[in-house]
């Protein structure tokens, strides 16, 4: 756990760099694709375009512009770019680069070109054993990390020992951690809550109230339960913070990109216009296509009315007003 290469220069990567360096147990090699950002971090100890108020400790963090240099001496690779960019970000890496290393995914999205989880992709294509893989889940917005507000993260890992070490490395005065085993379940659930947050944003944009949103979110939990049972059925507690907690924060928080994106769609923005306005990535936009594809493969698409409604609005260009009229009759 002593040296971690963090891949990605956005808000969550910046927050994770802050969390880990405030924990004091790790040295960080931070790969960012933009050289101007790296120069700024070296000079001013802050990331200029994402969470600029978070101080970056030069004692713990070395920025790199070359990904191979960043990971060479690290024993752990932490992926923190949006899922749509992960293949491009790691395109120069080979299975040899991953040899003897642990891999952590902080990504809450599926690989859009393949409709598979990020950890599945890493395990299959870079020959990384499941026991050397972990994901970081839980309700936690980067903006609140910058303000050092108390938050809780869940580490799901294939190995008890690795999970414990990563949990300890991520703890600090404002972060508490828990360690569980359900890697794929936490990942799928984190992906689905982004879709749900888009639906909550759409509902708000259309003028639906808090009463309706509470029904939407409780139905969404049933939808997650149904999907997980079909896609990856193991014993798990969906009331845990990595599942229900993350669904709640993303559905209700002012900081949620997915909710903000959905709100614009509900107000009549086109997908393109909403994406341009956001300047950050709403993972749920890509995720809904993948989850809908997987659901069709599993023959359960009719049992996921919220996912289907968001898919129809974003990809089939069906009016949100019409789609929500249909959806409201399917909720209970
Ligand atoms: N933000 C949050 O609070 C949380 C986010 N997450 C998850 O973390 C992941 C990352 O999201 P987040 O940090 O918020 O995203 P942001 O929108 O804040 O940042 C995206 C980052 O990706 C970079 N990028 C874009 N294209 C590429 C590429 N081809 N190769 C490498 N890097 C690229 C961007 O670089 P550039 O600026 O140069 O374009 C930017 O640094 C997502 O899966 C998200 O769901 C999870 C928990 C909390
Ligand atoms: O996953 C998150 C909080 O736990 C972040 O969600 P958003 O991408 O919607 O901001």
From TrEMBL:
Active site: 193
Keyword Nucleus: no
Limits of the Glycerol-3-phosphate dehydrogenase NAD-dependent N-terminal domain: 3-160
Signal peptide: none
Gene3D superfamilies in the record: N-(1-d-carboxylethyl)-l-norvaline Dehydrogenase, domain 2, NAD(P)-binding Rossmann-like Domain
One term under GO cellular component: cytosol
Stated family: Belongs to the NAD-dependent glycerol-3-phosphate dehydrogenase family.
Name used for this protein in its record: Glycerol-3-phosphate dehydrogenase
